[in-house]
Amino acid sequence: MDIAILATALAGTAAAQTCGSLSASMIKMNADMAAGLADMLAQNADRAAALVADGVGENVDISA
Question: What confidence tens digit (pLDDT) does each residue in 48-60 have?
Answer without folding.
Answer: 877 777 777 777 7
